[in-house]
């Protein structure tokens, strides 16, 4: 999904900044440990103190701005093609396609005896949710009994299902 592409790009951006900072600190630490400190006029280095105070603030801003952009992109509300309501129960999910005549079905986890070779244990279900491609979908997620987490990792989606609360996420596959 486009949001997941943004998350991957942000991860690469933040990892590059973190790697550069780590190598710089490692270099400074190794050079401090391996060289003789002959210059003792460091006590009056206001310019250097100003730089190492302002530079981390600039780096934090350069990391925070793309993060805030992605945060607002994930909460962006488009005009969805249709809405699916997902209700978490203790051992299964109930899905309601509200725009299509109130189609309701339960999705139970398959027991290990019914798994085919290559199926993922604890992830395979008897009735899967069918989602369209390149159409905005609104998922309304709640729970009936306990806390749940509705997630599709490849789309960059993870929304909590909390009893008594209706959470919403919009995505395009």
UniProtKB/TrEMBL annotation:
Residues 79-173 form the Cytochrome oxidase subunit II copper A binding domain. Keywords: Copper, Electron transport, Magnesium, Membrane, Metal-binding, Mitochondrion, Mitochondrion inner membrane, Respiratory chain, Translocase, Transmembrane, Transmembrane helix, Transport. SUPFAM superfamilies: Cupredoxins, Cytochrome c oxidase subunit II-like, transmembrane region. The keyword Translocase applies. One of its GO terms (cellular component) is mitochondrial inner membrane. Binds a copper A center. InterPro entries: CcO_II (IPR045187), CcO_II-like_C (IPR002429), Cupredoxin (IPR008972), Cyt_c_oxidase_su2_TM_dom (IPR011759), Cyt_c_oxidase_su2_TM_sf (IPR036257). It comes from the Eukaryota. Its cofactor is Cu cation. The chain crosses the membrane at residues 12-30, 50-72. Residues 1-78 form the Cytochrome oxidase subunit II transmembrane region profile domain. It catalyses: 4 Fe(II)-[cytochrome c] + O2 + 8 H(+)(in) = 4 Fe(III)-[cytochrome c] + 2 H2O + 4 H(+)(out). It is a multi-pass membrane protein. Its main location: mitochondrion. The keyword Flavoprotein does not apply. One of its GO terms (biological process) is ATP synthesis coupled electron transport. It is found in: Mitochondrion inner membrane. One of its GO terms (molecular function) is cytochrome-c oxidase activity. Gene3D superfamilies: 1.10.287.90, Cupredoxins - blue copper proteins (2.60.40.420). Component of the cytochrome c oxidase, the last enzyme in the mitochondrial electron transport chain which drives oxidative phosphorylation. The respiratory chain contains 3 multisubunit complexes succinate dehydrogenase (complex II, CII), ubiquinol-cytochrome c oxidoreductase (cytochrome b-c1 complex, complex III, CIII) and cytochrome c oxidase (complex IV, CIV), that cooperate to transfer electrons derived from NADH and succinate to molecular oxygen, creating an electrochemical gradient over the inner membrane that drives transmembrane transport and the ATP synthase. Belongs to the cytochrome c oxidase subunit 2 family. This is Cytochrome c oxidase subunit 2. The lineage of its organism: Eukaryota, Metazoa, Chordata, Craniata, Vertebrata.
């Amino acid at each position: 999904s486009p949001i997941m592409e943004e998350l991957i790009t942000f991860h690469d951006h933040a990892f590059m900044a973190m790697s550069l900072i780590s190598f710089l600190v490692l270099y400074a630490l190794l050079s401090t440990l391996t060289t003789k400190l002959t210059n003792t006029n460091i006590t009056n280095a206001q310019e250097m103190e100003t730089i190492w105070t302002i530079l981390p603030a600039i780096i934090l801003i350069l990391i925070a701005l793309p993060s805030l952009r992605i945060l607002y992109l994930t909460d962006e509300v488009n005009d969805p093609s249709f809405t699916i309501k997902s209700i978490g129960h203790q051992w299964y999910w109930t899905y309601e396609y509200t725009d299509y005549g109130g189609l309701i079905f339960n999705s139970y986890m398959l027991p290990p005896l019914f798994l085919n070779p290559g199926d993922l244990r604890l992830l395979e279900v008897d009735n899967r949710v069918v989602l369209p491609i390149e159409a905005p979908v609104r998922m309304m997620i709640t729970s009936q009994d306990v806390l749940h987490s509705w997630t599709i990792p490849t789309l960059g989606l993870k929304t909590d299902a909390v009893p008594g609360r209706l959470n919403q996420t919009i995505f395009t596959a």
